[in-house]
Amino acid sequence: MVDQRSVDVGGVRLAYQVSGPSDVPPLVLLHALGEDATDWETVVPVLARSRRVYALDLRGHGRSDWPGDYSLELMLADVLRFLDTLGLGQVELIGHSMGGIVAYMLAEDHPQRVSRLVLEDVPIPRPRKQTTPTRPDGDLTFDWEMVLAIRRQIDMPDPRWLERLSEITAETLVVAGGPRSHVPQDGIAELARRIPGGHTVTIPVGHLIHRAAPEAFLEAISAFLLTEQERRPCPPTKDAQ
Question: Taking Cα atoms as reference points, which of 129, 124, 74, 87 lies closest to residue 104?
Answer without folding.
Answer: 124
